[in-house]
Amino acid sequence: MEARVAPETVKKPTAAISKTLPSWAALETAMMPLGMILVQVFTMVTLLICKLALNAGMRPFVFLVYRNLIAAAAIAPLALIFEREMWKKVSLVVWGWISINAALGIVLAMGLYYHGLRATSAAYSVNFLNLIPIITFIIAIMLRAEKLILTKRPGKMKLLGTLLCVCGAMVVSLFKGRRLHLWATRLLRSQAAATSPTGLHHGMVAGTLFLCGSCLSYALWFIVQ
């Protein structure tokens, strides 16, 4: 005979388990902006280290090669373990897009940024990183890769975020505070060409042009991805 289980003996999800589900969802939602904040923190730390290396005499493209070689050595084992099946999807078209991504994001975006960082200061060059979302947003709208609908809440939030980026970049660039020596002052020495006022002005103009080109390359890089 088939045994039947009484309805009272069937286990149902407890209230404790049902209460933990919203908490996990809230944690996952909070981790997204937290991850973006951590990216910005790591970016600032990397920026300061890059500035010290460039002031010490490191060439921008040499530094870029060393950086990507170390990154490739660290990421390659993970790619072989977790993304091994992706090699089957690689074609000439994929290699073409990878080459375009590398040219825009590594050679142009980072290369021009390091040249601008070497000619200017870390506090000045970081303002151009805040302008990248604005340029990306404008180019994406022009290429019809992004739609701006001001009658809906997402469109208004995009426009508000763009204005906040502009205001933040202006505030940081106009604010002048006391210099903090967090490390040996000999590491903060400038290049010999920037010792005179004429050399300093020329370096700021050239550095600003490099940083503008870097912002444009970053924007195109994000859109291509």
UniProtKB/TrEMBL annotation:
Membrane topology field: Multi-pass membrane protein
Main location group: membrane
UniProt cross-references to Pfam families, sorted A to Z: EamA
Coiled coil: none
Keywords assigned by UniProt, alphabetized: Membrane, Transmembrane, Transmembrane helix
GO molecular-function terms, A-Z: transmembrane transporter activity
Ranges annotated as spanning the membrane: 60-82, 94-116, 122-145, 157-175, 204-224
Domain of life: Eukaryota
Cellular compartment(s): Membrane
GO cellular component, one term: plasma membrane
Location of the EamA domain: 34-173
Signal peptide start and end residues: none
Family assignment from sequence similarity: Belongs to the drug/metabolite transporter (DMT) superfamily. Plant drug/metabolite exporter (P-DME) (TC 2.A.7.4) family.
PANTHER family reported in the protein's UniProt record: WAT1-RELATED PROTEIN
Protein name from the UniProt record: WAT1-related protein
